[in-house]
Amino acid sequence: MEKIRSLFSKSSSHSFQFLSDLHLEVGQQYSAFEIPPSAPYLVLAGDIGRLIDYDSYLAFLARQTQGFEKVFLVLGNHEFYGLSFTAGLEQARKLESEPILNKRMVLLHQKRFDVPNSSVSILGCTLWSKIPDNARRVVEVRVKDFEKITDWSVENHNAAYEADIAWLKGQIADIQNSYRGNPKKQPERTTVIITHHAPSIQETASPQHVDNPWSSAFATDLLNGEDWSNVELWVFGHTHFTTEFKKDGVKVLSNQRGYVLPGSVQKMKNEKDKKRVFDVRKVVYM
Fold this sequence. Notes:
By secondary structure, the protein is of the alpha/beta class. Helices cover 24% and strands 17% of the residues. It has six helices and eleven strands.
């Protein structure tokens, strides 16, 4: 965690505890899994569980909103399992409005949140990946989304990606333009992007999976040649690979648990694996 802390000023008061891919649907771990607070804000970058497990999912979020000032939730693909995309969004919006959450849960579905008393803006969406035509068949066979999400198809997947990336780029442009036009009155904002799918194929997954023909279902190369100049940090999930690196000026982080059976513990094979191990207390300081 010290390496994560060093990315930002330790004197700053804005810190975010971040994790993803808890997969609490495995063995129905919604009531058993605990997140000890290490920061005022909690980022859940998708695949926390399934929205079809509504009551259990809600109870899990309710516990988190008791321990954190804000809980930011990005929807992963598994959130939609057992539902259609539309029905899943309806359930997610219903969650956000539940009185028990005390308005402390923020659903980051194409949503911007400006952190109070700071110049930090959070942009969040699922960012479904872009699947090329030559990978379509293998993705349909190897990726369970098209079986588990009702009426989901590669066309739907790509359309959702196009909607997410258009929204994201539009928000980035708005933030850039807001201070370029009036720099003396409008301070430059620091932008944090939170998505479920990864913004780069390289370095965001285990090396043995990078060249898989179906890797386009997990990531899209967005950091090469795009203008992310005011983006300080990008948090992602989906690949079950905990990592940290910097690319084209953007710090890219993930803290992913993956499929873990109740009672089991993730172990390091050696010291080099330390930064690859999920840490429920991991924090990034802004």
